[in-house]
Structure formats: structure tokens, C-alpha cells
Amino acid sequence: MAYPDDLLSDGEQVVTHKHPHFKMLLFPIFVLLATVGVGSWLALLVRDAESPWNSVGLIAIGVVALVLIVWLVLVPFVRWRTTHFIVTTDRVIAREGVIKRTGIDIPMARINSVRFEHGLIDRVFGCGTLVIESASDEPLTFDDIPKVERVHTVIYRQVNDNPYDDYGVAQTEQLPYGQQEPPPRQPPRGRGR
User: Fold this and answer.
1) Which pLDDT tens digit goes with each residue over 103-112?
2) Residue 141 forms beta bridges with which residues?
3) What is the C-alpha separation between 141 and 25, in angstroms, rounded?
4) Which residues are within 8 A (CB) of 165 and not within 5 positions of it... i.e. 6 or more apart?
């Protein structure tokens, strides 16, 4: 889902848009499977009870299962789906929440440094924590960012805004200190006919 264009400034473009990594949903998926499994097993046991109690037991199992699924499965899924981490050409945007919506915008010009952290489990899943130090007092931490190294590089390149840095430029083509534009390319020299 693309970030709404009407919330962007004139000339601003989305560079990357991420939701938290899907590992955030592993526990809710486990709870869903366990609730359905245990609920089905209990329903089979209660079905053989006497006449009024089998209906009461099935209703009680259904209500408990519904509460568990809404509280431990649906709510985390909605939280995951409504959490956005966006890098644009002008700023870093973080938004989350449905009823209570929170957000922060960090202009690229105010970012002092950006770093990432990921342990063994994060490396297995391909995610990590992004830490952005800006003009504010404390660094801002964003957890479970998918492909955190790539996002780190994207932010670094947007902050530096240098099209001639080492990304995609051969070592022999790097600019000398103080030179603003690359030298014009010379056509390859061929052998005479």
C-alpha cells in the first residue's frame, strides 16, 4: 500500500515504505492455531455432555475463543498493518495506531547520524533496529525494520544527497576533493583501420 500522495509536500517522493517485519505476527499466528485447536478439542468433549450443558459449554468456548482471537490476533495484526516507516526525499516519517494515532517526521537536514543494530535472530529474519540521531536530545529507535541495512543506506544517501558517492561509481571514477561534477567521459580509443 503506497503512502498517500496528498500528505507529501510538492516535489517530495517516497523512496521506501515499510511495515514492521512479519516476525511481529508469529506469536499471534501461534495463538490463532492454538485457540482453534484447543477450542475444537474442548467442543468435542462438551458435545457429549447432558442436554443443557452442552449448549452452555459450546457458547462459553466460543466466547473465550473469540475474545482470545480478537485480543491476541486481530489487534496485533491491525497494529502491524497501521504502522508505517517511510523514507521520502525530504524526511523520515513514522506513523502508527488506529484509534490513537501517533507520528513523527524527521527532516533529512536535521539527521546527524543513522545506525542499525541486529542480533542473531534479527539477522535470521532479515530485520533489525534503526537508530536515528537528529537535532533532538535523544536518538529515535525504530524496531523490526525489514531489510534494515538497505533502509540505513537509503537514509544515508538521502542525508548526504551526493550522487557521486561510492554507490555505483567505480573507484577510478570517484571525484577528486572539491570537484563538483565528474569529468566528461572520453570515448574509448580504438585501433586505427
Assistant:
1) 999 998 889 8
2) 131
3) 20
4) 157
Q: How many CB atoms lie within 10 A of CB 92?
A: 28
| Interval 73-101: pLDDT, tens | 999 999 999 999 999 989 999 999 888 99
Report CA dihedral (177, 109, 140, 87) to the nearest 10 degrees.
-90
| Sign of the dihedral through C-alpha 169, 170, 173, 174 | positive
Q: Which grid coordinates are listed for 151?
A: 533502509
Interatomic CA distance for residues 139 and 56, integer angstroms: 54
Cell of 155: 537514509
> Distance (Å, rounded) from C-alpha 80 to C-alpha 21?
9
The C-alpha cell at 109 is: 537536514
